[in-house]
Design brief:
With 369 residues, the protein is an all-alpha fold. Helix content is 82%, strand content 0%. The chain is extended and about 95 Å long.
Length: 369
């Protein structure tokens, strides 16, 4: 009996097993009304929304494809005559990639483009590995002689660009954290200081990432002249950090300023020093709001990164999207949409990570969104 109860707890803990059990109860009529409502809300409705999304996408893409195909056929008819128009029609209907209209790709085309990008990644990775093995002996000699090693200069793969963007956004996020949290604490401790610098925060908070990029570009280029540093990466992560730090700064200041006065009085009674008061009383009480700000900062950082990478020519997802747009190949639109989904999924995962950390340090254990 005890073993059966333990097994039941494990089954409930495992989501898939619980879902299978719920489906079984649904078809055997053992599911009560409240569980049935939960099943509809948490399983059926999300699945229905996914199906509806892909259905709208598929039929919308097909409609746009047909409109663009008719336009190409009419153009050929007007400019080159009925014979050429019939050739264009036959080519489009055959599915030949070279003559397909350049419109919104279908879900199947996007999935095919994603698989192509992964296949390209494996090819590039193999080439890079072969290059490293081929130049290993030569590079060892060059390094021994005090010369720079020969590095692989081939184009980065789609997966490489994803990792470049993730590294850049985390560097920018850390910069925002190290700037915004200390300043937010200082501002939050003084009402006079808070009112004095509020105008500065309100002016710089809504500034576009493009403007931050240009400002950082001016400064970094001055210091990076005759330097071997990767100026594109430096410009990107500093721009991302400065653009996204404001939510953390405001939330930190708000959290510090709203600490319960009873806690402050207890700190006075215990005769805690200024730093002890900050680290033992003020910061623990402010953590929920600080992490809310950090969660917003990370989301904003990921969102603005793509535009900043595009401008800085950094080899990340922003450059990938722009290069595919400029390329204008038959599968460029599909690759752009595939990149859009990857960007969205990574952004969602980053938000979930921050939400999990926020729950660990917060007194409010709500599910969040």
């Amino acid at each position: 009996m005890k073993q059966s109860l333990t097994l039941g707890k494990v089954t409930k803990f495992i989501g898939i097993a619980g879902l299978l059990e719920t489906i079984k109860d649904l078809f055997t009529g053992n599911l009560d009304k409240e569980d049935f409502k939960n099943f509809l809300r948490k399983v059926i409705m999300p699945l229905a929304s996914v199906f509806l999304f892909f259905a709208v996408w598929y039929f919308g893409a097909k409609s746009l494809h047909d409109i663009e195909a008719d336009r190409l056929i009419k153009k050929a008819l007007v400019e080159q005559g009925p014979a050429e128009a019939e050739k264009v029609r036959a080519c489009i209907e055959s599915g030949e990639k070279t003559c397909q209209p350049n419109s919104l790709p279908s879900p199947a085309q996007v999935w095919g483009a994603y698989q192509t990008l992964l296949a390209d990644h494996y090819v590039i990775r193999a080439d890079k590995k072969a290059f490293i093995e081929k130049t290993a002996v030569l590079n060892a000699k060059r390094v021994a002689n005090g010369e720079a090693a020969i590095v692989y200069t081939g184009r980065p793969s789609f997966v490489d660009q994803i990792f470049t963007s993730i590294i850049t956004v985390f560097a920018g996020f850390l910069l925002a954290l190290f700037i915004a949290v200390p300043i937010g604490i200082i501002i939050g401790l003084s009402e006079t200081l808070r009112s004095s610098v509020n105008w500065l925060i309100q002016i710089f908070k809504p500034v576009s990432p493009v403007v931050w990029f240009l400002l950082v570009f001016m400064i970094v280029k001055t210091f990076a002249k005759n330097s071997d540093a990767d100026s594109a990466f430096i410009i990107c992560f500093i721009s991302v950090g400065l653009c996204s730090m404001w939510a953390t700064l405001v939330n930190t200041a708000m959290g510090v300023s709203s600490v319960d006065k009873d806690y402050i009085n207890v700190a006075k009674v215990l005769k805690l020093g200024p730093m002890q008061k900050i680290f033992k009383v003020i910061l623990p009480s402010s953590l929920p709001l600080i992490f809310t700000g950090l969660r917003i900062t990370l989301s904003v950082a990921w969102m603005v990164l793509i535009a900043i990478e595009l401008l800085a020519q950094s080899p990340g997802l922003g450059s990938f999207v722009w290069e595919e747009f400029q390329n204008g190949a038959n599968d460029s639109n599909s690759k752009i949409i595939a990149a859009m989904f990857v960007i969205g999924i990574i952004g969602f995962m980053l938000d979930r990570i921050m939400l999990t950390i926020q729950k660990m340090v917060s007194f409010n254990k709500n599910d969040g969104i």
